[in-house]
Write the structure tokens for this entry.
Amino acid sequence: MKIIGIIQAIETIAEGGGIRELASLRGRYGAGNWKKKKGIATVQLEDGASAPAEVHWYEAHGIGKVKMKVKRWL
């Protein structure tokens, strides 16, 4: 999976203690102001085809986006 272009319509859907995987994120990537976000992006598949999708990820300042996944195809 590869994101093509920019992610649009970005929204924060959880932050801090509201994130279920917070302990795991801190253990693996370090302490930070973690937020779970979602947005719309064009995703290129391994076979070269591309389609718009809703993507979810976690991010923290100084660490960046981690654990990005396609939640649903649009």
